[in-house]
Amino acid sequence: MMFCGIDEIDITPRRETPGGAMSQFLSAVAGIRGWGEEEFLSWLWADLQQELEAIPLAEPEVRALQVISSVRPGERVIIYGDYDVDGLSATTLAMELMLARGAAVRYFIPHRFLEGYGFHVNTARKIAARGCDLLLVVDCGTKDVEALEVIDQAGIPTVVFDHHTPGDGLPKGVLVNPHCFDLPTPLTALCAAGVLWSWIWRSRIMDRSWTAARLDLACLATVADCMDLSVPLNRCIVKEGLKLIRRSPRRGIGALLGRLGVEPQDVDEEVLSMKLIPCLNAPGRLDLAEEAVRLLYPGDGSVEPLVDRVLSLNEERRRLSSVIMKDAQGDLDRHVYHGKDWPVGVLSSVASRLCNDRGRPVALVAPAGDGLRGTLRIPNGAGDAVKILSRMSHMLSAFGGHRCAAGFSVQRHHWEAVREGLEAALRELPSDRCRLDVIHWPLDRIDQSMEEDLDALGPFGMGNPAPLLYHPGGFQVEPMGRTGRVSKLLAQGREIVAFASPLELQGMEARGIVYRPKMEAWRGRRRLKLYLEKVVLSSGEGVDR
């Protein structure tokens, strides 16, 4: 049993608004988030089209429209992307856009181990030598000033759609990156596929029905990159994208869901993040990411061999991730871990899991060629990963990313100094484990209206966490399933699923439980299930489950 470092659990009943536009449950959720009723309702009922129409095209977006619209049928377009799901989705979307406009399209995804993230000078020289009529760079390019200078000198028009933090200078060509120009605030919260998709919609380079039919790509990327769902535009992209996947999944996605035992109509954000996205990420983590692109856009080819390959790679990813998790569990006081035999490709997913489980920053580092490559994860609101790495940029070969997630490369002779500096910097950051806010909601208050409210609140994720509720009092424990590792708690006529053995839960002097309600679908029918998050002991401490 793992004890959390909870100093205080706020279990006081929330002030509720009788009558009015919100139910008592929604009022409690708004209150615990510190939102007023008008602000909360505006967020809750946000409309995708209205959100998009409120954002005018900025100057670089107008230039992008001019350049891409000038491509004539048959002209050669090269798309350069990235090996994670955001990059793969953006690559697929860019490819479908240019194919629809009649271009002859080729795409290229760098190899994670042989080349690494970004648009590289060697690749730029090859493209410059062979020539093309347009280069589209997605989910990278903002910091690749030297490589894009090579393309510019070759006279090749270039448009970059990216969302990464810029470096000291900006590249040549047209750069559509909300972080680099005075673009409206909602755009700065988008992933790369979201930046591209919203531009296609707002620029009207394609008709709206064409663009709407590709919202699934922006949805996948938004969930995969853990973008902020407190931003209405992101939440609308995921909400409407999920509807599209349920109604009409891509051929490759539908086949993959079938092999995962999920019917399209039952897909929610948790199915994406826990099942579908890890499979799509696996090729880029262990082999060639192009296999995932071919699954997203299979053309007329068979998808079954691709599904077999993706599932096989995902099983290997899971095995390797378990090894790294086990290695990193030995010393819980550290923030920086270096594994001499760890595969670089699975570091980011393991780092994310460790960061979430521990509620504190984590960096994982492994050998890559002649040097080392690492990934850094920081809890939301605890600090800025890119700023931390920038302090030691003179010792890094490369770095980049976002506030909560960043990657870096370092030569071996700089590693000890980087390790010490990174460990010291991460120790200074606050932990998010000091307080847990929950809504006082006894089990006997659960009713049909709460189920409707949960549907309205979703999809859940970064910036829009599922509400945690507190039920005072004890419970009975019964085994659940055959493994002995799952139990069900019985209280007030309700069942709460606990991922713990009955032996771990029996005999506790419980003051109450913290539980998470979730609407789940099975063959198109939705039902409410409750999951145990923590047992609150009589002492006030929380036991994590």
UniProtKB/TrEMBL annotation:
Residues 76-221 form the DDH domain. Residues 442-533 form the RecJ OB domain. Pfam families: DHH, DHHA1, RecJ_OB. InterPro entries: DDH_dom (IPR001667), DHH_sf (IPR038763), DHHA1_dom (IPR003156), RecJ_OB (IPR041122), SSDNA_exonuclease_RecJ (IPR051673). The keyword Nuclease applies. Residues 339-425 form the DHHA1 domain. GO terms for molecular function: exonuclease activity; nucleic acid binding. Keywords: Exonuclease, Hydrolase, Nuclease. Belongs to the RecJ family. This is Single-stranded-DNA-specific exonuclease RecJ. It comes from Thermanaerovibrio acidaminovorans (strain ATCC 49978 / DSM 6589 / Su883).
